[in-house]
């Protein structure tokens, strides 16, 4: 299973994402989608797993979840928008990590790309940064990886380009 992981599009979908994810089996979006049109565009492109973020309205919230539990390639994945970061997870995420014991925790919100293994919760933390053009990040990013037989491999950090064109 090859996955393209993005977050924080805030209503903007860079056209190059389609090229970067053309060989992916699924697209995962870790929240702050921005609008239903973007959600539908991704759904029409590849199978999509998405959670809502803090900026997403009711129209996106009724089509997604706050926290998704995914079983993929022999691994348990928990995806949510706001999780904190290792070692400072939010209280509700700490409780879910203990209860659900995922192998991978996917989140967004911070606009900061981070891939780190948290030893306390025995979980691989993935935050793809931000793929949209709103926020303080300087470069739009996404992650691409494969999951199979209980392992994650071929992890790639993809820099899509500058957050916004300078004038």
Give the topology.
Blueprint: E1 2-6, H1 16-20, E2 26-29, H2 36-45, E3 48-50, H3 58-61, E4 67-72, E5 75-80, E6 84-85, E7 88-89, H4 91-100, E8 104-106, E9 113-118, E10 123-128, E11 139-148, E12 151-162
Parallel strand pairs: 1-2, 2-3, 5-8, 8-10
Antiparallel strand pairs: 1-11, 4-5, 6-7, 9-10, 11-12
How would you characterize this protein structure?
The chain is an alpha/beta fold and 167 residues long. It has one domain (2-162): Purple Acid Phosphatase, chain A, domain 2 (4-Layer Sandwich), CATH 3.60.21.10. It is built from four helices and twelve strands; from the N terminus they run βαβαβαββββαβββββ. It has a five-stranded mixed beta sheet. A five-stranded mixed beta sheet has the order 4-5-8-10-9, with no helix packed on it. A two-stranded antiparallel sheet has the order 6-7. Strand 9 and strand 10 (123-128) form a beta hairpin. The longest helix is centred in the N-terminal third of the chain and has 10 residues, at 36-45. The protein is globular, with a radius of gyration of 15 Å. The mean pLDDT is 95.
